[in-house]
Design goal:
Layout: H1 24-34, E1 40-41, H2 56-64, H3 79-91, E2 102-105, H4 107-119, E3 125-130, H5 134-142, E4 146-151, H6 162-167, E5 173-179, H7 191-204, E6 207-211, E7 235-241, E8 254-260, H8 266-278, H9 284-295, H10 300-304, H11 309-322, E9 327-329, E10 337-342, H12 352-363, E11 365-366, E12 368-369, E13 380-384, H13 389-408
Helix pairs in contact: 1-12, 2-9, 3-9, 4-5, 4-8, 11-13, 12-13
């Protein structure tokens, strides 16, 4: 028998890839569950785990079309699903998109990867918000690009400053990523901010990659502005899907719709078509739910309005943070998350990863450290607001107990 001592190494391209939302902490949570502990997993926005159901009409649409789902479909997706996306765009005032500019994928995640693969050459730069949703950074790096972060400061309500974004543009910049409503912060960008970002993209001939998976998930007086409605001379790729607004994560159905500078984008769209063909097609049964989802009753609006479950859970988080001497919060205006800060004056030396691990080990609550979202700041953590009020109230009791214990410890002495 031949003995081999050399370890089999993964690709060096993975050295710049992080996804701590399902990383070390999540693995430790699984170990604790196997030991018999009940873990409150607030690290991922997964509606089905918290009792939210996909609308019945969507389930029926999928069931009734199973007989038409056994063969591969067109690489771009079935026509009724793509046409439903076109109709939604037209309802929003985006009139130049046709079914030929819409691609259906296995969730938005796959389409982010395909789009960046079609767009980037080695060394090309992509402007990405910090904090970001880490898939954007990972997909940029894995496709040979460089992630350049524009800050979305807490002092600015986690909204970007367009002039700061503009100053980061170089001759290698190809695209600007916009996540609105934002994950992880819950910010909803103003019309003025988005108009200026669109103007910058047009001036610098950049592609806008607009992640709008939480498009209808807004609270109180927040207004969601579709980025495509502001772009005429820049190419805009709008990403959305069934996972969040329609509570159908497991269906794995997302889409990207191209609009704006289509007259200059034929080669890019053809490249997308080639990449889509190489993976044959996306999940067919789930695609049959798209037309019913987009054309039917939008139940998410009730969930996000006064008295709705998401509205009430958000309120419970806001009240719990207000009642804590250790925590701060910029109220989330959209999405299903809260990006919570630790008050430095009460918690000197706070480290988000150490806190998250201690909270998991001692109180069996799993959260995502803020630094997981490609930011240097280590004073935040993200939770999903999907649990009901009672669970969230209990979560913050446990969080405060851990923070109180941390605050009571003597500060560590620095060594020379």
């Amino acid at each position: 028998m031949v003995s081999h001592s050399k370890h089999i190494k993964p690709s060096r391209a993975l050295s710049g890839v992080r996804y701590e939302i399902r990383g070390q902490l999540a693995r430790r949570a699984l170990e604790l569950e196997r030991q018999g502990y009940e873990i409150l997993s607030l690290n991922i926005g997964n509606p089905g785990l918290f009792g939210f159901r996909t609308p019945e009409t969507m389930r029926l649409a999928m069931i009734e079309n199973l007989h038409s789902s056994e063969a591969y479909c067109n690489q771009k997706g079935i026509f009724p699903a793509r046409e439903a996306v076109v109709m939604q765009q037209q309802d929003r005032g985006v009139m130049d998109t046709t079914a030929e500019e819409v691609f259906i994928g296995n969730g938005v995640s796959e389409l982010i990867d395909l789009t960046l693969r079609a767009l980037l050459n080695p060394g090309d730069e992509v402007l990405i918000p910090s904090p970001d949703y880490p898939l954007w950074t990972a997909s940029t790096v894995l496709n040979g690009g460089k992630a350049v972060y524009y800050p979305c400061a807490e002092s600015q309500g986690f909204m970007p400053e367009p002039d700061v974004v503009k100053a980061l543009i170089t001759s290698k910049t190809r695209a600007i990523v916009i996540i609105n409503p934002n994950n992880p912060t819950g910010a909803v960008y103003s019309r003025k901010c988005l108009e200026r970002l669109a103007q910058i993209a047009e001036e610098k001939d950049l592609v806008i990659l607009s992640d709008e998976i939480y498009d209808q998930m807004v609270y109180e007086d927040a207004e969601f502005i579709p980025m495509a409605t502001l772009c005429s001379n820049a190419l805009c790729a709008t990403f959305s899907g069934l996972s969040k607004v329609y509570r159908a994560c497991g269906y794995r159905v997302g889409w990207v719709a191209f609009s704006g500078a289509l007259d200059r984008s034929e080669e890019l769209i053809n490249a997308m078509d080639l990449l889509a063909a190489l993976r044959l097609c996306s999940n067919v049964p789930g695609q049959w739910a798209v037309q019913t989802a987009l054309g039917g009753y939008q139940s998410v609006r009730k969930l996000c309005s006064e008295g709705g479950r998401l509205h009430s859970s958000r309120k419970a988080v806001i009240n719990a943070v207000k009642g804590s001497e250790y925590l701060t919060l910029v109220k989330p205006k959209g999405s299903m998350y809260a990006f919570i800060g630790a008050q430095a004056q009460h918690l000197p030396g706070f480290d988000d990863e150490l806190f998250a691990m201690e909270l998991l080990e001692e109180k069996h609550v799993l959260v995502a450290p803020g630094s997981s979202f490609n930011t240097d700041d280590r004073h935040h953590f993200r939770i999903t607001i999907l649990p009901d009020e009672e669970i969230l109230t209990e979560v913050f009791v446990r969080i405060d107990e851990v923070l109180k214990h941390m605050a009571s410890r003597p500060p560590k002495l620095e060594t020379a």
